[in-house]
Amino acid sequence: MKALIYGKPKQVNRMFMLAIAPFIGMLFCMWLLTKPPQLSLQYEEYVSADSLASQSGVIKQDLDLAADAAKQTISSIEETAKLYQQTTAAVNSILKTAQTQAARPEHIYNRRITAKLGTPMETVNSNRIRIELYKINPGTYNGYAMKVKLKDPSAMTMSLGTGQPGSVETTMRAVSRHGAVAGINAGGFADGNGGRHPLGTTVINGQYVSGFHPSFKDLTFVGMSKSGQLIGGKFHSRQELDKLEPAFGATFVPVLLKNGKKMAIPDKWRTSPARAPRTVIGNYKDDQLLILITEGYDENGRSGATLQEIQNKLVNLGVMDAYNLDGGGSTSLVLNGRVVNKPSDGSLRPVPTHFLFFK
């Protein structure tokens, strides 16, 4: 009896344990999934720290490489800048040498033509113009030569009276009114219609004052192009003159030189008058201008210079192209506020056109 009672509880416990065993296993598995073992956590921490140390090492190596590259780049930039400075200095030196060499022929040529004129008695020099005044005295006449270097084409222009048709003024008045440093009389004129009007084609500021007039007889246009070069000759159509882009100019007679060669002087101008005060404008190969003024005490042919004498003088001075302007009592040269020549009228004659020069 006792053995039976004792044996039943054991059977019941075994059966109960067998019955709940699956549930206990399930709970244990769930616990394992929700809370990993401490050993696994420590391993993960160990792995993460090791990985971080490894990555830090790689980053440090990259930074070191970047620093080395930056140093090399800075060094390269410094070397390039130094080379650039050396190259710039070399180029500037070459340019300066080239400019000096380029200026030498001009300097030599200018010295050559100046030697024929002598020593200037007066000089005007600015960043726009250089003027040198010389006294000439070949023996048969007296006069002046004014050599002009236009550094800026705008340093020379032409005035036309006082702005009204037929109006006139003296060279001194024109110089003063326009603020010029020098001036000479320009083209010829004809009296009539209550005024004194310029002959033939006249151009002011690139505009034809009274239209284009084809050259007739021996009349010749003379003036300056917009680029600052002396232009002139006979023109039978406006298109011919327009090609030279005249900035200003006037008309008289005759042409004296072309390309350094003497031109035929019309018979009338050989004798009527034979001698006279003259105003002539010409140019050199380097585009410098030469203005020749000869003096005389009247217009009766007994004083002054002949056109043939003027031609010979211009050729000897090396002038290339030359044109006779109005002469006689019209001849005038003003420089630095004074009349240089002695007008044959006893005083300056009012005329329509003047060539003016500015500092």
UniProtKB/TrEMBL annotation:
Keyword presence, Membrane: yes
Keyword set includes Transmembrane: yes
Top-level division of the source organism's lineage: Bacteria
Keyword entries, A-Z: Glycosidase, Hydrolase, Membrane, Transmembrane, Transmembrane helix
Domain (Phosphodiester glycosidase) ranges: 178-358
Alphabetical list of InterPro entries matching this protein: NAGPA
GO molecular function, one term: hydrolase activity, acting on glycosyl bonds
Record field: transmembrane: 12-33
Name recorded for this polypeptide: Exopolysaccharide biosynthesis protein
